Structure formats: C-alpha cells, structure tokens
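Dear Dr. L.,

I hope this message finds you well. Following up on our conversation about the binding site, I have prepared a predicted three-dimensional model of the protein together with iron/sulfur cluster. For your records, I am including the exact sequence and ligand specification that went into the calculation, followed by the structure tokens. Please feel free to forward this to your student if that is useful.
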Amino acid sequence: MTLDVCEIFYGIQGESTYQGMPCVFVRLSGCNLRCRWCDTHYAYGKGLTMSIQEIVNKAGDFGCPIVEITGGEPLLQAQTPALVNALLDIGLLVLVETNGSMDISRVDSRCIRIVDIKCPSSGMADHNDFNNFARMTKNDELKFVIADRQDYEFARQRVRLLEFEGYGINAIHFSPVFGELDPKTLAEWILQDRLEVRMHLQIHKVIWDKDARGV
Ligand code: SF4
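The resulting structure of the complex is given below.
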C-alpha cells in the first residue's frame, strides 16, 4: 500500500483550532482543483512513492503528537484512509485538510477534518461538495479563504445557513488571502456582522517567507 508524497516536514500549524502548535505535515501529491491563489503548485506532480509504514516512521521520527495530512488534495489517493488509520492507531492526533470537493466520509471520523469551502474568487466554487456539511461531526472544522467582499458575503451566507440548520461543527475559520485582502478589513467585516467565526492569518507566512516550502 503506497501513496505519492510531496513532502513531510515539521512546522507550525496555521489554519485550524490547533493554530500555533507544532505539527508534522504529510503533504500528499496531486490536486483536482486549480485555485487562482494556490500557493502549493509544487504539490500538483506525482511526488515520491512511499509505503504507509515509511510515512508513519518518518512522521513518528519528529516525536510530535499532532500530524496533519494535507496536499494537494489528500482524499484523491486511494490509500489515504489507510494512512489516517495507521496514524490514529499509534495514538497520534490526526488532522486532514481537504479542499471540500470530495466525500470526507472516506476517512475515519476519529480524525479531525478541516474542510475548505471554496469562495468565488478561487475560481473553484462550483466544485464544493455541500453534502459534506451533513457528514461533519463535532470534531470537524470549516475554513473559508477570502480574497474580497464577494467572497466574504458568500462565506457569511453559508455560515448563517449552517447556524440556521444547526450543524454540529467544531469551528468555522475565515482567513484572508495573503497579500490580497487586508486582515484589518476582514476583521472589521466580521465584527460589523457579529459573526461567530474565528479569524486567522496563514501564520507560517507571517513567521517565514511567504513562498517558503517545508515550514
Ligand atoms: S485545493 Fe489547495 S492545492 Fe489544490 S489548487 Fe486549491 S489551494 Fe492549491
């Protein structure tokens, strides 16, 4: 059982309720989307073929209790559910960050699924699988990456719909596209509307160079 891996590295978690915590990242190769502002083009290719045991060993070498499987799009690969289970079975806290276009129930709900909802400016909003809302548990988190006012209004409408329908999601995150939307502007919009969302920045881009890899 193998997967195509772009990179495995130790960094600071930047885009969930675990923001700021040290985390091992397993970035899987391949993506079915092409977001306009994508910062991980280098993950589109095939990557290095590794067995599940090799990935688990390498992730375990860092001695960190939190592992995030990301991409690219991690749910594209057939063996991702087996990798998630292997990491859970050795007692790690497993985060899976997905682009929201695929069925999240493919991976064990003991992991924490961080599900992107693509806003209009990404160019990929037609690919959102909104059936995922009903598949999410109280463990899971939603994330909107926002570039402009149109994106904000799209996200706000979804948040209000989710509140109305009473889905049990752990947290909803709003994040400005780095270099496109001033964080202060997004903060003011959230406060004006009294939205119960968490705003955050892509912390790795604040700490390190915005184009740096493996951080
Ligand atoms: S889903 Fe993620 S990796 Fe894929 S194109 Fe969009 S931002 Fe890039």
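In brief: The pocket of iron/sulfur cluster is lined by residues 31, 33-35, 38, 40, 43, 71-73, 99 (CB under 6 Å).

With kind regards,
A. P.
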